[in-house]
Each structure stands twice: as structure tokens, then as C-alpha cells.
Amino acid sequence: MTKVLQNVQMLNEQGELQTVNIAMAEGKITAIGQNIDVADAEIIEGNGLVIAPGFVDVHTHLREPGFEHKETIATGSASAAKGGFTTICAMPNTKPVPDSVENMQLINGLIKESAVIRVLPYGSLTRDISGEVRTNIEELKAHGAVAFSDDGVGIQLASTMYEQMKDAAQHDVVVVAHCEDNSLIYDGVMHEGKRNQELGLPGIPSICESVQIARDVLLAEAAGARYHVCHVSTKESVRAVRDAKAAGIRVTAEVCPHHLLLEEMDIPSDDANWKMNPPLRGADDKDSLHAAMMDGTIDCIATDHAPHTVEEKCCGMVGAPFGIVGFETAFPLLYTQFVETGKWTLKQLIDWMSVKAAQIFDLPYGTLEVGASADMILIDLNKEQTIDAEGFVSKGRNTPFNGWVAKGWPVLTIFEGNIVYQEAE
User: Fold this and answer.
1) Domain spanning 54-360: which superfamily?
2) 89-100: per-residue pLDDT in tens?
């Protein structure tokens, strides 16, 4: 049956809002225009709200299989739908790891059974994400791996990364890297700067991240590989990516909302809800990330949604795992802090969270056009509310943004023509 989403405000190429109706059938957008007349169509009233393509998140952690006490595919995908995401890429740090055809088939089955939106699994670069024995990229790609990563740990051996990059180049898939030199972590739990000294906590130096990016971009050049850098957080990392792009190396990069919004001096105390990896860096690093967004060095925004239990996060930073949740707060936080203040346009933010993210992996999502998948969200730009972690759909409550006031909330999410989230009346 055809459905028509009527009376919505859609951005044109110039970033201007115009009133349109959108028709959809069999999971696809069939028409966009001011006058759509479809007999017997089901009408969804848009009430003049802003319509955007469903967001695409290329860096998420759903925890299932193996860590269902933290999150499941069902709760994680529902949380993403509430935040306006209709396509998410799930990292491979599960148990078992998607490092074989058997394990990849297991995860695909769980996704088919439980996900309410599109979940695309990563394959791991090495067996059990140990950084040692290489996986079979060709086989895992054939069974649905969207890209390849050992996210959560950096691959320490340059030879392992180089050989996998060569295989990835042969099969035209992207190598995605959490960049971290283990010899430079020094058991740190937050950024090595001023605030860690004030709190008496061990620090993680910036060089830990940037030196591995510098290594990897040269390996990617030699291998002819497409290389994507996870959660860039330092000014040195930005410089390495910018220089690599200028040299013609096929590198892309993402940034997380928390690294754009916060820096080390914002950390109020030894509170593990502020512990993430990479950590919140210095104010100059944050400024460098903003500049990199504007000049194209950084390509997209990704949440690195990483849920943990309250019990795991209730102790201090030293004993707690790294990571915070991000699906349900990403857009309103960024809209409030950057679009409302005039630093970004609405079109820039939506593009960074949708089409630009999809383009990295050649995904046909993140756009509003006839023939595209009917994945879209309605956003109430005037809706203002206080973030309440207890109201999250995600099992995770671990966020430093609890109690923040933000505007611009997704109120309706449509995936392949079907409503998968709707704000309660």
C-alpha cells in the first residue's frame, strides 16, 4: 500500500526549507512534490516538521552476541531508531567475533531476528580481534561484512595491517581502524594533560593515537587501500589525515559528538561516565576537530555508541570500562550547540550524519530522492527537553550529558516505509 507523508519541510540543495509531500511504496520513495495525489494512500501527517534522511552511523557497538547484559541488537537498534538512525554499522567486538563464516552467519541471523532498522555488521581484521592471525576478507565480505575493523584495539603489527590492507584493496572494501599504540597507553584512563594531574589519574598521551594514524596512512598508500580512521580526537591526528588526503591517499575520517562538544577540563570528577576511548582531549584539540569538519579533513560524524551497565560504570575511572552511549542524544546536542548558534548550517549537520557517512562505504542510503530506500525522520527543531538517561531505550545509561537541555529532537522514524519509532503523544 502507498503511504504519503504530507506537509513536511525538506532541505533543498541550497539548504533552504520547502514544503513537500513524500510518497512511498514497497520500501522505496516513489514521489516527492507539493502535489501528490495517490488514491487510497495511507496518510502520515508531518505537521510542518523538518524531514531528513535516516541517519547513518558507521561506528556502533550493539554488544550481542556475548554481552547482552550491556545491550542487545533489539535494544540497540530501537535506541538508534529513537535517535533518528536507520542504518548502523556494528563493530565486531562481540563474543564470538565475526571472524569466520560461521560466526558471521550467526550474527546475521541475530540481526534478522531482532533489528528494527538496518544493521550492517563489520568483519574483524584478525581472529578474535587479537591483532595476530588474519581473517579471510573475501569470505567475510561474501557473507555480509560491510567493512573490516578490529575496533577497540589498534593493530600493533604493521605487517598484519599491511597484508590485510592489500587483501582489502583487492576486494574493494574499507579498512577501518581504532588507532592506538599500546606501548604509549601507559595504563591511562583519561587524556594526559592538566585535568588528569588535578584528579590524580593516569593519562593517555595524544601521540598514542596519532603515531598509528601516521603509520597506517603510509601503509594504505603502499597497499592501495581505502582506509577510514575511527573517532579522531587530537590535533596531531587531524594533521596526519589532512596531509594524507593532500598526498592523494584514500583516507577518510570520522569524529564523535562528545569530542566536538567536550574537552578535558569539562570532566567534573573521577566519574566513569566521562571515560571514553579516545578520551576527551585538550581545548586546542577540540578546536582542531572543528576546523577539520569545515575544511573536509573529517568526513562524517559517528556516535561510537558504547553501552555498559550501571554497575560497571559506578566506580571510578581506573576500574571502569571505556565508552559512552550516543544514539539518542547525538542530533539534538549537535543541533543545539552548533546549528542554533550559527556555527553550522542544518544542511551541514544532516549531511555529516547521513549521506556523507554512507558514501564512505558506498552505501545507497542517507538520501531523500525518488527510488531511494524510504528511510527518513521527522525532526521537531523547536522541541526542547532535558536529557534524562533513565528514559533511554538503550540499556546503557552511561553518558556525560545527563541533565543537559537540548533542542531539535527526532519525533518519528520511518525505515523502509514503516514507522519504527514515534514519540508518545
Assistant:
1) Metal-dependent hydrolases (3.20.20.140)
2) 999 999 999 999
Q: Do 351 and 294 form a contact (C-beta atoms < 8 A)?
A: no
Residues 89, 119: Cα–Cα separation, whole Å: 6
Among 420, 407, 357, 366, which Cα is nearest to 58's?
357
pLDDT in tens, 124-150: 999 999 999 999 999 999 999 999 999
- Strands 3-11 and 17-25: what pairing? antiparallel
61 known member of a binding site:
yes
Report pLDDT digits (tens) over 236-291: 999 999 999 999 999 999 999 999 999 999 999 999 999 999 999 999 999 999 99
Side-chain-facing half-sphere of 136: CA atoms under 13 Å: 10
**Does residue 69 come out as left (phi exceeding 0), alpha (psi in the -120 to 50 range) or beta?**
alpha
Q: Any binding-site annotation on 62? A: yes
Q: Distance between CA 326 and CA 75 in Å, rounded?
A: 13
Domain assignments of the chain as residue spans, ordered by start: 3-50+373-422, 54-360
Q: Same CATH fold, 54-360 and 3-50+373-422?
A: no
In this structure, are strands 118-121 and 85-90 parallel, antiparallel, or unpaired? parallel
Q: From the candidates 216, 285, 304, 351, which is the catalytic residue? A: 304
Residue 266 bears catalytic tag: no
93 is in an annotated binding site: yes
Strands, E, within 216-287: which ranges?
Answer: 226-229, 251-255
Q: Domain 3-50+373-422 carries which CATH code?
A: 2.30.40.10
- What is the three-class DSSP state of 204? strand
Strands 85-90 and 55-60: parallel
Look at residue 202 and give its three-state secondary structure: coil
Name the grid cell of 323: 565508552
C-alpha to C-alpha distances, 211 to 88, 100, 252, nearest whole angstrom: 28, 30, 17
Residue 321 and residue 300: Cα distance in Å, rounded?
Answer: 26
Q: Which residues pair with 87 in a beta bridge?
A: 56, 118
Its pTM stands at: 0.97
Q: Report DSSP letters for 328-380, one per residue.
A: TTHHHHHIIIIITTTSS-HHHHHHHHTHHHHHHTT-S-S--STTSB--EEEEE
Q: Which three cell numbers stand for residue 349?
A: 549537520
Query: Three cell numbers at 415?
Result: 525505515
Q: Are strands 3-11 and 42-45 parallel, antiparallel or unpaired?
A: parallel
Check whether 127 is labelled as a binding-site residue: no
